[in-house]
Amino acid sequence: MIYIFIVKPNKYIFKKNILALGFFSIALILILIRIPFFESRDWLFINNFLAVPILMGSTAKFNFKAIDQTLLVSFFLWVSLDFYNLQNSNTIWGNKAFIGGVGNPSSYGLILIYLYEVSIKNLSHNKITKRVLKALIFINLIMTQALMPILIFLYLRFLRKGKQLFFVFISSIIIIYNLETVLFYMPGYHWKLKLESLLFFLNSSDTLGSSASILTRIDFLEDLFILFENPKSFFIGNINNSFYNSGDSQYVTYATSFGVLLFLIFLCFIVKLVRDSYKTKYFNFFIALSLILVTNRILDYWPIPILIYLTINRFYYERRNS
Q1: Between the N and C ends of the chain, which has fewer C-beta atoms within 10 Å?
Q2: What sign for the dihedral angle of Cα 237, 240, 244, 248?
Q3: Sheet strands (E) in 132-280
Q4: Which residues contact 239 (CB under 8 A, 6 or more apart)?
Q5: Whole-angstrom distance between the N-terminal and C-terminal Cα of the chain?
Q6: ω into 303 cis (within 30 of 0)
Q7: pTM score of the predicted model
Q8: Are strands 242-244 and 39-40 parallel, antiparallel or unpaired?
Q9: Which DSSP letter does residue 83 get?
Q10: H/E element holding 243?
Q11: What is the share, in percent, of the chain residues with pLDDT greater than 70?
């Protein structure tokens, strides 16, 4: 970790990440100015700002392959630990969700998507080994019970690639209807409840039957409307008199904390990242990132921003040298 921050920045990657660096620099200044006068729900945003210097390009010559290998080894350790805790009813989350080594199901879900979409492709294993790894990753993703990562994964793997639709359909039937062989290992029905709640809300616009997870996100989304009540809120945010209006959406958090114009800079960076990575092995992961930011403030959860920013640098570094 020390190496990441002390080596000389790379001019090329710095320029590619200039929108994100500009956004985070201004956001940090606004936070520091507001801290003496306002409060915040928490201080988890510090996790992100500690990782932002990576975007300066200081990892251009970093051993990215070693990161993939380390994550895959860690994955097997996490799987063992999660199954052990599940069997001994010693899980951190009440719904017995798998969390890997990061403590948050959605964060772990994004890491699993990274392993599936990036890490495996960058390692020189035979096809059988890769298929076994992919199957294990898919099973563990379901066990996180994190609805958004699961839906994103299904979209990336199956809806965009019709030839694999049959495999996913059969797998989903097995999981959704809980065959006895799966029931023994399933950690509960939390993700299923959230999906039912979401579908109910979309059909009726009624939050009465929604799960707490869906309900809190809907409530937080309503903060967006406050932005348009007066020019001050629109331009500088500061909604709810909070110097960082955190909630279950990175997009809504940034828009309501720093105003619409500054948020658009961040959004442009995400759109640019997805566009630049089109037809590369990183495209699916960046699509997943852009989608999960809708329902999770994933950048505030350590160590996710480190993984994301390293991957961004890695993409641009490989693109330049390809």
Answers
A1: C
A2: negative
A3: 242-244
A4: 223, 226, 227, 233, 245, 256, 257
A5: 27
A6: yes
A7: 0.79
A8: parallel
A9: H
A10: strand 242-244
A11: 70
